[in-house]
Design goal:
The protein is mainly alpha-helical and about 475 residues long. The protein folds into 2 domains: about 280 residues, no CATH class; about 160 residues, Butyryl-CoA Dehydrogenase, subunit A, domain 3 (Up-down Bundle). It is about 75% helix and about 5% strand. The strands form 4 sheets. The protein has a two-stranded antiparallel sheet. Strands 2-3 form a two-stranded antiparallel ribbon. It has a two-stranded antiparallel ribbon with strand order 4-5. Strand 7 and strand 8 form a beta hairpin. Helix 5 packs antiparallel against helix 6, helix 7 packs antiparallel against helix 13 and helix 8 packs antiparallel against helix 9. It is globular, with a radius of gyration of 24 Å.
Length: about 475
């Protein structure tokens, strides 16, 4: 009679491998439900092949792909990657149709506004994700790039998307050249960011370091939201929305009318405390050299995810078509999610960042096994930036030539121009230090990550915080 241990080994060997049918079924049902509800809405309103419907379908498939890529990172089930790749291709097709519809409707390529640029950015990012996955075997790349795609498409759903005639400055072929180069370069920068993050995992960067970075990012997001929007008595300030005109309400030229959602600020303050707690516990553990406290920090991350989901649900329910008072004018005013696109996007970024960290914390060894070697990831990051940098250079050169033809000057030190030059210098520094000083490994990865942060500020921060000649972009 075989020993119990031998029996157990035989049973383990005979046990069938995990098929991953559970998550596939959940994702499939989620896709079917969302498409069915969208179809019912279309039947009531009419118009099936509209740009908003096509973009919504793309969002569904990008989100489903993100879920499966993260599921692959947690379980290592190969089927998830195959299905996720198919979903990305499906989403990319809908993304392409939305861009084509926009082009046909507007009469020009979709490059004239932030909304249209993001449409092109996501299209390129999905394409590069599939290229990196198939060419270099980086199967986990979608676990980073697809959340970026989902966040971007959610933001697009909230940004103004009406078609307007091009302003005179944009009525040029150089618009197509300049923005095409910019979106290709920015998508390549996003890919290099994802690859650099994976390199740090493969290079044995400590998990608690990722914990500190994740908590720091979430703390910055909610700290910035509360600093700008927290009102006395615990309200959260949002912008009033004119549903008839589909635009923000202005008190006077350039001054938006703010209204207050009662008590929502207290919830965001609680979320801020929850997402900052892991960073505080991490600092205390390092200061006192008591690593046991890090277990509590990881539990705090999980609590933070739950509270962020509660905050997301509360914000959506209360900001969607709500009506609230304003301290600047009598009466009540409506609001909409479209009036606060960056609040919603910030919450989603915080949730995704925390989920990706939890995936790393729970399955660190499996993730390292699924990734290519550190040297391969380092080389691919270098190649990706080697593609992005010439595109950035050509983008700036095309923009300068276009500016001279439009405004009579090659360079005006406009905020967008200045930060585009800063972005170029960051990536030029990366290539310079790598080629002349032989920088490899973590220093190069940090450079790539910092470069993408600068890219995001150049694209979003400058556009909304530092308006100038590029105010329309």
């Amino acid at each position: 009679m075989p020993a119990p241990a031998a029996k157990m080994r035989v049973q383990e060997e005979a046990a069938p491998p995990k098929t991953g049918n559970g998550l596939l079924a959940v994702v499939g049902l989620g896709i079917a439900f969302l498409l069915f509800t969208a179809l019912l809405s279309v039947v009531r309103s009419g118009g099936l092949f509209t740009e908003s419907n096509l973009l919504y379908a793309a969002l569904i498939f990008y989100a489903a792909a993100a879920a499966l890529y993260i599921g692959f990172g947690v379980s290592g089930t190969e089927r998830y990657v195959k299905v996720a790749s198919a979903l990305v291709i499906t989403a990319w097709v809908f993304n392409t149709l939305a861009a084509a519809h926009r082009w046909y409707t507007a009469g020009h390529p979709p490059f004239a506004s932030v909304y249209e640029m993001l449409l092109s950015f996501v299209w390129t990012l999905a394409l590069l994700t599939q290229y990196a996955e198939r060419k270099y075997g980086v199967k986990l790349i979608g676990s980073v790039t697809m959340p970026i795609a989902v966040t971007t498409v959610v933001l697009m759903q909230l940004l103004p998307s009406d078609v307007h005639p091009l302003v005179p400055a944009l009525q040029s072929t150089w618009l197509h050249v300049h923005v095409t180069l910019a979106m290709l370069a920015y998508a390549a920068c996003a890919l290099s960011f994802a690859l650099a993050m994976m390199f740090l995992i493969k290079d044995n960067m400590k998990t608690e370091s990722f914990l500190a970075v994740t908590s720091g990012i979430s703390t910055l997001i909610y700290g910035a939201l509360l600093l700008a929007r927290f009102e006395k008595w615990g309200g959260l300030s949002v912008v009033a929305w004119d549903a008839a005109r589909k635009q923000e309400v202005f008190v006077e030229r350039g001054v938006r009318l703010s209204i207050t959602i009662p008590d929502l600020g207290w919830l965001f303050l609680l979320v801020l405390a929850a997402v900052a707690a892991p960073l505080g516990i991490y600092g205390f553990a390092k200061l006192r050299k008591q690593e046991d406290f890090l277990l509590g920090a990881n539990r705090a991350v999980f609590v933070g995810v739950l509270l962020q989901c509660v905050a997301l649900a509360a914000f959506v329910l209360r900001a969607r078509n709500g009506s609230y008072e304003s301290g600047a004018a009598p009466g009540t005013f409506s609001t909409s999610l479209a009036a606060s696109p960056f609040v919603l996007s910030g919450i989603i970024v915080g949730i995704f960042a925390s989920l990706l960290y939890l995936m790393l914390y729970w399955r660190r060894q499996d993730l390292e096994r699924l990734l290519p070697t550190a040297d391969v990831l380092d080389r691919i990051t270098y190649k990706t930036i080697g593609i992005a940098f010439p595109l950035l250079t050509l983008m700036i050169a095309a923009g300068a030539y276009w500016a001279n033809r439009t405004w009579g000057s090659y360079w005006s030190w406009d905020p967008k121009e200045t930060w585009a030059a800063i972005t170029w210098l960051v990536y030029a520094g990366y290539l310079h230090m790598r080629i002349t000083r032989g920088w490899r490994g973590r220093r190069a990865a940090y450079f790539a990550i910092f470069g993408f942060v600068v890219v995001m500020f150049t694209f979003f921060g400058v556009t909304y915080l530092l308006p100038g000649l590029h105010a329309y972009a």
